[in-house]
Amino acid sequence: MEKDKTVSNTTIRRLTKYYRYIEELNSKNVKIVSSYTLGKMMGISPSLIRQDFNAIGEFGRQGHGYQLDTLKQEIGNFLGLNKVHNMIVIGAGNLGQTLANYDGFDKVGFPIKALFDINPKLIGMKINGVEIIDLDNLKSFIKNNNIDIGILCVRKHCVQEMTDILVDAGIKGIWNFSATDINVPDDVKVENVNFSNSLFTLSYLMNDKYNLA
Amino acid sequence: MEKDKTVSNTTIRRLTKYYRYIEELNSKNVKIVSSYTLGKMMGISPSLIRQDFNAIGEFGRQGHGYQLDTLKQEIGNFLGLNKVHNMIVIGAGNLGQTLANYDGFDKVGFPIKALFDINPKLIGMKINGVEIIDLDNLKSFIKNNNIDIGILCVRKHCVQEMTDILVDAGIKGIWNFSATDINVPDDVKVENVNFSNSLFTLSYLMNDKYNLA
């Protein structure tokens, strides 16, 4: 693999999806899979799958199928999944607590190490074993606990302020659930989860006027 | 506008984003906006904005800027936002309750009318004024309350079963938070919100090995 390989955002989304299916097959003790079988499972054409895999490395030979363990490792390397990313949640409201309650992130190497809030009623509580800490301690916690990713679950009016604190503390990845776009330096990466955008997309898909010509 | 206009998924995501910014400007009593100003706010090139707007209708003349109320209405029509979509949540766990607690959906015409669960401890409770109802009553509730959208917040093992019940009851849109792909007939539209996919994308973006050539 070359170091300067870059692929499109759409391909990344497909690769994360392959990874998910591969994990599922792995858990069923499957060792080898063909692009045909994977394509049928996922509703993606086998040729597109082969093209995606070729884009990130060289696996297997035509007609022999793919070794699942190699495939998983290579896609994992590509996506940066083969190491632990420590995360913290900013904002211990409903959504923040929901994310802390979800064990799936820890299982794939993305443990949530703490939640932060300013509400004295919440501070000291534990959610699924994860403590809610006073926001005043954010910066030192990040520095002392090797935190890679900050998850923003705060209200609109303080999102940029929280972002600036995270960036200042050296955070390089922000997972933004705040429904507002944020400004960060070039070396900080942001992934937005915007529920309204997603809902509006569903609404468009359901809008017969345009879909059913 | 023609009835058979179709645009790409990426454009839809941008249109939903424009809609969000237009609402924000509207709330500040702005009446007219140029593609230049909107582009600067959103970090999108003015020419791409003009191209997107041209794809769905004809607004304004070169150099005169866009009337925000017309723009909002046309994009809203296109996305199917100018009518009410009643929603229900299947699964009243952490995530389901978080969604019910969020007032933002109701404000844009997507009210949550009920949550459904099988847990007798939850049934009868109200979350933000929305009742948790026994799953046994799902089908009749959908028929009697003009429900358009089912939100899936259930565990993997029963996702497809719940999907089939929703489809059977006539639901045409499914907002799927279940981290598993679902099978539906062609006339039922699905929008997936997959937290792991999103997190893996962030991980890729942070993966220096490939990003910084």
The name of the CATH topology of the largest domain in chain A is Rossmann fold
Structure summary, number of beta strands of chain A: 9
Order of helices and strands of chain A: HEHHEHEHHEEEHEHEEHH
Structural class of chain A: alpha/beta
CATH architecture level-2 label of the largest domain in chain A: 3-Layer(aba) Sandwich
In terms of quaternary structure, the protein is homodimer
Largest interface: A-B, 59 and 59 residues
- Shape annotation of chain A: elongated
* Count of structural domains of chain A: 2
What's the gyration radius of chain A in Å? Answer: 20 Å
Classified by CATH, the class of the largest domain in chain A is Alpha Beta
Distance between the termini of chain A: 45 Å
Beta-strand content estimate of chain A: 15-25%
Mean pLDDT of chain A: 89
Helix content of chain A: 40-55%
CATH homology group of the largest domain in chain A: NAD(P)-binding Rossmann-like Domain
Query: Main β-sheet of chain A, in a few words?
Result: 7 strands, mixed
Task: Describe what you observe in this structure.
Chains A, B: Homodimer. Two copies of one chain form a homodimer. Chain A is an alpha/beta fold and 213 residues long. The first copy, chain A, has two domains: 9-79, Winged helix-like DNA-binding domain superfamily/Winged helix DNA-binding domain (Arc Repressor Mutant, subunit A, Orthogonal Bundle), CATH 1.10.10; 86-197, NAD(P)-binding Rossmann-like Domain (Rossmann fold), CATH 3.40.50.720. In chain A, 45% of the residues lie in helices and 17% in strands. The first copy, chain A, contains ten helices and nine strands. The first copy, chain A, has helices at 9-27, 35-42, 46-56, 68-79, 94-101, 104-107, 138-144, 159-168, 195-206, 208-211; strands spanning 32-33, 66-67, 86-90, 112-117, 126-127, 130-134, 147-152, 173-176, 189-192. In chain A, strands 5-6-4-3-7-8-9 form a seven-stranded mixed sheet. Chain A has a two-stranded antiparallel ribbon with strand order 1-2. In chain A, strand 7 (147-152), helix 8 (159-168) and strand 8 form a beta-alpha-beta unit. In chain A, helix 1 (9-27) packs antiparallel against helix 4 and helix 2 packs across helix 3. Chains A and B meet through helix 1, helix 4, helix 5, strand 9 and helix 9 of A and helix 1, helix 4, helix 5, strand 9 and helix 9 of B.
